[in-house]
Amino acid sequence: MKRFTWLLISIFFVFSLPSLLLAEHWEKVVENGFDNPRNDYVWSMAPFKEKLYVGTLNLWGGTEIWRTDDSDNWGRVYKSYTRNYGIRCMYADGDKALYACASNMLGAQILKTEDGETWTTVARRGIGDWQNTTIRCMTKFKDYFYVGTGGDVAKLFRSKDGSEWQEVITNPGFDSTMVSGGYTGRLVPNNVMIGELAVFDGDDGEGKRLYAFTWTKDVDLRSASQIINRGLNSGNRLMQFRRNSKTYNYDDSQSSNISLLPSTVGAFEVWRSSDGENWEKVVGLDDKYGNGMGFINKGGDLDNDVITSTAIYNGQLYLGTEHDYAKTSIWRTSNGTEWEKIIDFCELGEKYNYYVWRMMPFN
């Protein structure tokens, strides 16, 4: 996140375990971005009807979706021609339908398929607001599908059938936390994206709740595309781009790390709801945890401003953080309100872990 280096040509490899299921032995099954070097990332994955689906990040030529049933033979089942640059989230509703959430600078889209081949756009233009440029999470809670969007303000949308989507007018709203916007002093919303959603049944006896985990900032893809496109067009290794009314140089010959993340004066929050409409903030302003769990005391350093991953394991809800100065950590709770830090990578001597991108329970 903070140390985000944009390479003009980058390749992401997909691996699969061989039949022996030994973690020591890995086999490369895809290379060269599915023979398209502009597929920079495998941004999402999901199994659906006995096939594995992969969504890519492609800033130049449009995102793609590929699938396989044996890890050796892959076929492309979707190619974007509508400025969808990345499938940041995929969600399978059993064998009924597979959903792909596409980031788009003109407003995020939601794609749906029932056979894995024919894709229908069921939400476009940021679900009614083009400033909702990305969707990173989707889940099902009670009678609805939910997605969290990112843009100027974090928002929540839901649908009963996966085709008709409406914004949830939450009480209170995710825009209710306001922070001072840097040197201007103007108050701005703290939460710009719902980065993760999770359904968790804690040990407090109150039943399942929907949890939402916020980000205070996200990668500025517009600036990133300027860097890459100018380099491709000019052929020069030294490029310039503008951000926040300032001009920056990018010299990839020196492996410069340029942050495309705006500065933030806030820290992440954790919210939960029993009905999807009425919410309570369980981690946020004036919380007691410190070290990035929401806000710490006035005048202190803000540590963690993004929750990049969550997982439920052995009756506990886990979250992994992003940290600007590599003080990344993992926390957990059994009831949703009392949290404990179980790993601090910096204290372990790991000085270059800037975020916990994914956690996945296995056996």
Can you tell me about this structure?
By secondary structure, the protein is mostly beta strands. The two termini are 29 Å apart. It contains two helices and 26 strands. Residues 1-20, 236-246 and 250-258 have low confidence and may be disordered. The radius of gyration is 20 Å and the shape is globular. It has helices at 32-35, 221-234, and strands at 14-16, 27-30, 41-48, 51-57, 64-68, 74-79, 84-93, 97-104, 109-113, 120-123, 134-141, 144-150, 155-159, 166-167, 178-180, 187-189, 193-201, 208-215, 238-243, 246-251, 270-273, 279-283, 304-313, 316-323, 329-333, 339-344. Strands 3-4-5-6 form a four-stranded antiparallel β-sheet, with no helix packed on it.
In short:
By secondary structure, this protein is mainly beta. 5% of the residues lie in helices and 43% in strands.
Please supply descriptive tags for the structure shown above.
363 residues; mainly beta; 4-stranded antiparallel beta sheet; disordered N terminus
Overall pLDDT: 83
Rg, alpha carbons: 20 Å
Alpha plus pi helix count: 2
Main sheet: strands, sense, barrel? 4 strands, antiparallel
Binned strand content: 35-45%
Low-confidence stretches: 1-20, 236-246, 250-258
Draw up the topology in text.
Blueprint: E1 14-16, E2 27-30, H1 32-35, E3 41-48, E4 51-57, E5 64-68, E6 74-79, E7 84-93, E8 97-104, E9 109-113, E10 120-123, E11 134-141, E12 144-150, E13 155-159, E14 166-167, E15 178-180, E16 187-189, E17 193-201, E18 208-215, H2 221-234, E19 238-243, E20 246-251, E21 270-273, E22 279-283, E23 304-313, E24 316-323, E25 329-333, E26 339-344
Antiparallel strand pairs: 1-2, 3-4, 4-5, 5-6, 7-8, 8-9, 9-10, 11-12, 12-13, 13-14, 15-16, 17-18, 18-21, 19-20, 21-22, 23-24, 24-25, 25-26
